[in-house]
Write the C-alpha cells for this entry.
Amino acid sequence: MIIILLGAPGAGKGTQADLIGERLGLVTIASGNLLRENIGNGTPLGLRADAYMQRGELVPDGLVIDMVTARLKAPDVARGVILDGFPRTLGQAQALDANLAAQHKQVDRALYIKVTDEALLDRLSGRWICRNCQWSYHEKFNPPRVAGVCDNCGGELYQRDDDRREVAENRLRVYFDLTFPVIDYYREHDSLVEVDGDQEIEDVTRALIAAIEPQPARLAPPLKIETYA
Ligand code: AP5
C-alpha cells in the first residue's frame, strides 16, 4: 500500500501521517523530517538543503528524489508506506511513478487534505514539534498534556525556524505555484481523494482511513419470505 499525503504547509499532513501510520501499521516517510535530520547531522545534503529551507523554498528535485528513493529501498517499507511532503513538484511525482513502476508498484491513494487558506498561518504559528520523535502539537488546537513535553515520547518540544510568519508566507506561495499542480496530476491518474481538513483532528483521521480502507461490498437486501396462513 503506497499512500501520499498532499496539502498546504500546516494542512495537517504530519499530524495525520503519524496517526494513520500507527493505526494501519505503515511506515511514514516525511521528506521535511529527513532533510532536517540531514541538517542536524551536518551531512553534505543537509548543508545544501539548509539555505533553501531557511527561505521557505523547495530543495532542488534531484537532491530530494535521491534521498527519498534511497529511503524507499529500506526493508521496513516493504509492507507499505505513507509519504508526507513528497512528491511536491511534477518532476518528483513523475520520478516516483517511474521508480515504483520499475518495482511493479504504483501509488494506491493520493489523499489531499484541503484546508482554508486563513487557517494555515494560525496553525503554523502555534505549532510545537518534538525534537525526538517529530510529533506535532498546537498550543491551542492540539496541546500536549504537559507544556513543552511530548506526550508520545517525553521529548522536548520546539518551534521550527521556517514557521516564522515571513518564511511561512513564502512556503504558502511556493506551495500554490509548484505543488498545487501535483494535485491535478493525481486527479488525472484517478488516485486522488479529497478530505476536508477543516474538521477536528480525529474526524480528519476517520475520513482518511475511510478513504484508504476498501469499502465493504453492499449487501443485497434480505429476501422477503412470504408466509401463508
Ligand atoms: P515540510 O517539513 O514537509 O513542511 P510543510 O509541507 O511545509 O508541511 P508542514 O510540516 O509545515 O505542515 P503539515 O501539513 O505537516 O502540518 P502539521 O501536521 O504539522 O517541509 C519543510 C521544508 O523542507 C520545505 O519548505 C522545503 O524547503 C523542504 N522540503 C520538504 N520536502 C520537500 C520536497 N519534497 N521537495 C523539495 N523541498 C522539500 O500541522 C500544523 C499545525 O496544525 C500543528 O500545530 C497541528 O497540531 C495543527 N493541526 C493539525 N491538524 C489540525 C486540525 N485538524 N485542526 C486544528 N489544528 C490542526
User: Anything to note?
Assistant: Helices lie at 13-24, 31-40, 44-55, 61-72, 90-102, 117-125, 165-188, 201-212. The chain has a mean pLDDT of 93. The longest helix spans residues 165-188.
